[in-house]
């Protein structure tokens, strides 16, 4: 079976790796370079503590497990997964009430969590600063972060080692259904054929699929104030020792290797203005001691991949099984899992019931 994977972010690389493991002949098409899309501008947080409904929560929990399984497959390689936990707190009434409801729900769902005093939280992270109005901090011990570049190198490297082909930079302008299989129309005016195409093109998925008569409704990242726009700040190496991810009321922080930190402030996403770098540093000083010595290395604007209803899309678009699509806002958490399931569905032809709530046919205009 010849399978074309369009898009070489984390999802595309994971699909390619798993297809090669199942004996498919895989060709990966990437318009710029691997990781050039959303995979290069992600907070890279693996989690499921605030994901609903239950089916989506369970899917993300399975995704977290798939990361652990993948990292233990081959020892001696560079580590990309750090499931060291996530500390979460709120400092206003609405935020405290929201966390209380979350604790109640997650207790019913058996999701690991611990409730700590601020003093206990600072024992875990000595550099941590927590305001006086906070009386408890939640620890989600199974959550953590990923180094996306290292993970991409692992997934794509193993796909290529097993015989996958990477065509880069080669842009696929559109995909159409042929009498048998599919045709990929390339920007250079050429075309390629395959038995199956997997669209892993992220925010470009809709324009890629529409010529074949399919719609994949995504939140428009070009609209000012869109939830699909994101702003991330990256620091230079620091002397701050931070071992866990922090989700504070005004700033999210995670370690990024070699002493660097990655910063995210969701309210700054509305303007996604790189000039807000100084605001990131001001907020960092609110949550970490020693932040006054931190310097920013880069501020990036990214576009998230968010299906219209906020949930993952994964599955065949056509009845004949020639065109498969994946689009998700939880790409980092789900990449190893979705790669495994998609490859199995494509090669073996056996639908996995865990993806039934996430099929593209749930949208009225999907076919």
Overview of the molecule:
This protein is α+β, with helices and mostly antiparallel strands and 367 residues long. The chain folds into two domains: 170 residues, FAD/NAD(P)-binding domain (3-Layer(bba) Sandwich), CATH 3.50.50; 142 residues, D-Amino Acid Oxidase, Chain A, domain 2 (2-Layer Sandwich). Helix content is 28%, strand content 23%. It contains eight helices and 20 strands. Strands 6-7-5-15-16-17-14-18 form an eight-stranded mixed sheet. The protein has a six-stranded mixed sheet with strand order 9-2-1-13-20-19. A hairpin with a 4-residue loop joins β10 and β11. α1 packs parallel to α8. The chain is globular. The two termini are 25 Å apart. The relative contact order is 0.20. The mean pLDDT is 95.
Q: Which tags fit this structure?
A:
367 residues; alpha+beta; FAD/NAD(P)-binding domain; D-Amino Acid Oxidase, Chain A, domain 2; 2 domains; 8-stranded mixed beta sheet; 6-stranded mixed beta sheet; 8 helices
The number of distinct structural domains comes to 2
Give the low-confidence spans.
none
CATH hierarchy class name of the largest domain: Alpha Beta
Shape: globular
User: Residue-averaged pLDDT, rounded?
Assistant: 95
Order of helices and strands: EHEEHEEHEHEEHEEEEEHEEEEHEEEH
CATH superfamily name of the largest domain?
FAD/NAD(P)-binding domain
Oligomer: single chain
Number of helices: 8
| Widest beta sheet: strand line-up | 6-7-5-15-16-17-14-18
**CATH architectural arrangement of the largest domain:** 3-Layer(bba) Sandwich
> Which structural category do the helix and sheet elements fall into?
alpha+beta
Using only C-alpha atoms, the radius of gyration works out to 21 Å
**Alpha-carbon distance between the termini?**
25 Å
- Major sheet, described briefly? 8 strands, mixed
